Amino acid sequence: MSVFRKRSFFAYLFIFPALVVLLTFVYFPAFYSFYLSFTNYNLLSRHYSFVGFENYWKLLHDPLFLDSLKHTAIYTAGVVPIQTLVALGLGLVYSSSNRFVKLMRALVFVPAITSSVIVSLIFIWIFSPSGFVNSVLSLFGVKPENWLIVPSAALPAIMSVAIWGTSAYFMVVFIAGINSIPENLYEASLIDGAKSAWQRFRYITLPLLKPSVFIATVLGMIGALQIFDLSYVMTNGGPGYATYTALLYIYDYAFSYNEMGYAAAASFLLFVLIFVVSLILRRYLEVKRWY
Amino acid sequence: MIAVIAGVIILTRTPSMPTNPSSSAQAPVTIVFTGWVSSGAEYQFDQEMVNAFNAQHTDVQVVFQPITSDYDTKLKTEIAAGNAPDVFYVDSSQVFSYVQNGLLLPLNQFVNSDSSYNISDFIPETLNAFKFNNNIYAIPKDWSPLALFYNVKMFEQAGISSPPSTWQQLYQDAAKLTVKSNGKVVTYGLALPPDMARILAFVYQGGGQWITPSGKSVATNSSQFITALNYTYQLIQQGYATMPSAVGAGWDGQAFGEGLAAMTIEGNWMIPYMNQTYPNVTYSVAPLPAGPAGRATLLFTVGLAIPYNDKHPQQAWEFIKFFTSVQGQTKWVELGLALPTRMSLFNLPYYQNNPDAKALMSEFSYAHPWSFPTANFAKVYNDANAILQNLFLNKITLEQAIEQLTMSGDSDLSSST
Amino acid sequence: MKPKNLALLVLSFVLAIPYVIPFYWMVLASFRDAAMSQQPILYPFIQTLSNYVYVIKTSGFLTWYANSLLISVVTTTLSVFISALSGYAFSRISFALRDQLFLLVLGTLMIPFPITIVPNFILILKLHWVNTYQGIIVPSLAFVVGIFLMREFFKTIPYELEEAAILDGATPFNAFLKVSLPLAKPALSAVAIYTFISVWNNFLWPLIVAQTPNMFTIPVGFFKTANGQAIEWNYLTAATTLAIIPTILVYAIFQRYFIKGIALTGIKR
């Protein structure tokens, strides 16, 4: 009995640091944020007051906020499926244990470990009038443009950079998943008459990868809904707010206009969105044996 | 273990703002001075001023700790944290939001009690940018108007003998200066960004205005405003002017320096920039062309202010006084970074010998301050620029742009926080 | 089998090209002077090293590098330790509220970062931690994915070894330190890499905390220099090349453990 209690004590001690940090810097801010969202707290003002649901009302009636949500939604709906598919494809190729392939895999991974700021700067260059994209397009007679300021091209440009940058990250999830499929399943399927690689893929690999697809999709979605770095550095939400995402809106209101209460309300609405989408994904994609 | 020790070491060696509240006569009072730094030259200059001040004073010592970007946010953060510097730069477009929240110490008490300071020597427009309800909240340390920078060689090649002085001439010159090669434009007549901080000059030249004096609405649907916006829009539409980003330049100064445009509209800071980055470009400066309502330009000015709760206001004032005195301003005039705010300095030899600086200086009588009585300036400005961008990119029509400018302007200005 | 193998090798090479090319150009551009670096870059040649000299000498790059290094190393070390401690406790010891507390930990993944920036900023403002190292480090210390990974890993280790140590008189903490931790090297490496790379590349939070250039990390410093001004590509590419070296090194060294670590905690269960 006493051993158990002593062990418990150590358990609490061990998890104490993590809990302190999480409670202080994640849960507390979340609740405080929720509280602030009902006030008009402005960094400069020495007094602030309770304004009820006014911030939320204003948000839902602000065309710019709704636009930013729209851009975020388009971005997510475009990036996540493509990213997952690309990651799956890459996973199939790079899960081999061949040394050369492993070396190639290490190369594929380089964008994923590079800072998003650096990736953004490189691509500003690539999309610029004298950059690579234009040199290729000019072969087809397309007039050189700075693609990041063409309103209809800016968001797709950023989306492609995102997919390029993070597909390797999710590739790892699929590699782990593929490598954990027991060999004997494939052997058994051969005996059962599955002749082609496609059949093996369709009836064994794919179903067993469902958990991986789930993880990649959920994590990908949570990340995509919070996109900031790429749009902030590459276009700063431009041209003319064409690439303005939800998090950019929150950042501007909090740090450029100093309206902290309003920004808190916006971030809470974003949280609700993320939560709801996660629930939906869980319902349709999750496989019970996750843990 | 090592990590814990490392952590402890870091925690105890925090770099933070030094404030030394000491009222004893022996230890000198340390005050902190901050500003943004637009260039290496400005940084050096500010540091030299600080050093000169420190050499002359034993009771006060100044420490210079610049904030190089996101200036307003960082400064407001420091004020909110009770960590504000004693003297700081404040831009004329931002000062109202500080004043409205009672964050600045009115300086009248210092100015009035010191007759040697001669406040009437200051250009009224610059001082007025920082005056509200008869309280002076900051002393303007320098100013710069917008002027027309033009490439002398390109003008010669196009057979233009003198810079344009009216809208019509500007339009024609821009057309002549736009050079094509193999069907592709190699040089544009004018580099013009979709930025209210440039377009507004045209608006004033057209007799219009943007934010009304009440600070609660915009006058963007007046015929004068529309005429001015249309004028700039036509330049872009016809291909005689370009947005810097369209040619891969970071700003219009770069486009001008790279030879992508023959003219641009910029301020004093262009001079050191061109000398440093594009020394081989021969350019000249002329006052901005006149519009239907005559000559007009924008006046950008930066002031030095003291926070409302400063612990050493007297010492902070000593530094401001030093910086903005006749001697202080004379010191940096020759750097060419900006123009002095004291009228007595207009006759310095530097201006007689320097036609470019003289051209800039000569515009002060028709310069409109870039200062508006609203605390929501950042929002109005960002929204307006986004609309201008869409207009220049042909995503919306001129009518739509006017409509959006009016709607968003009015709504942003009347927003209460 | 041979043709199939060859096809795989070729495919793995071809697919890797688009991921590597931008970096290839970037590195090549860093060795050219200003005029040349704008041209499309097809073949390697080293024209000049002056860009690197310039970057190292000016622009505070070294300071940012030092800051990034310091912050990444400290955060990673502390974070890995905290994750290991917590993961161990959650997997090994049964204590009251264990499952609920674990859910609490996992729950933070649901809370998106944006919701926390504003109050966290106000919090460090009151603590006078703005523009300090601890302001940047402390809020990022609890790495939930790390805790999860460590817990999964520890579940796979038989606890007879620790039991033996405890029966021999060791305290649970010592048992953890001397017995379990050394066994956890692969998982620790995986968590270490993830943390190091993500902290090194962290942009938004250091952007908010850092006020003066001497506190910038590399991503923040880069952004501030490139933003709005003329971007001088020759210097920028040299600087970015230097900046990605640590992450590549860390990745290269720990690569083996990286994938292994994920596989271990894997999706199996």
From TrEMBL, chain A:
- Mode of membrane association: Multi-pass membrane protein
The record's keywords, sorted A to Z, are: Cell membrane, Membrane, Transmembrane, Transmembrane helix, Transport
Predominant place of localization: membrane
Biological process according to GO? transmembrane transport
A GO CC annotation given for this chain? plasma membrane
Q: Which Pfam families does the record associate with it?
A: BPD_transp_1
Bilayer-crossing residues are: 12-35, 73-94, 106-127, 147-176, 208-228, 260-281
CDD domains attached here?
TM_PBP2
The UniProt entry, under InterPro entries, shows:
ABC_transporter_permease (IPR051393), MalF_N (IPR035277), MetI-like (IPR000515), MetI-like_sf (IPR035906)
User: Where found in the cell?
Assistant: Cell membrane
Positions of the ABC transmembrane type-1 domain: 69-281
Q: Which domain of life is it from?
A: Archaea
Gene3D superfamilies xrefs: MalF N-terminal region-like, MetI-like
**Similarity annotation:** Belongs to the binding-protein-dependent transport system permease family.
PANTHER family (alphabetical): ABC TRANSPORTER PERMEASE PROTEIN (PTHR30193), INNER MEMBRANE ABC TRANSPORTER PERMEASE PROTEIN YCJO (PTHR30193:SF37)
Q: What is this protein called?
A: ABC transmembrane type-1 domain-containing protein
UniProtKB/TrEMBL annotation, chain C:
Which keywords has UniProt assigned to this entry? Cell membrane, Membrane, Transmembrane, Transmembrane helix, Transport
* Top-level taxon of the source organism: Archaea
GO BP: transmembrane transport
- Membrane topology value: Multi-pass membrane protein
Q: Which Gene3D superfamilies match?
A: MetI-like (1.10.3720.10)
What the entry lists under InterPro entries is as follows: MetI-like (IPR000515), MetI-like_sf (IPR035906)
Matches recorded under Pfam families: BPD_transp_1
Location (main, coarse): membrane
Provide the protein name.
Answer: ABC transmembrane type-1 domain-containing protein
Q: What is the lineage of its organism?
A: Archaea, Candidatus Marsarchaeota, Candidatus Marsarchaeota group 1
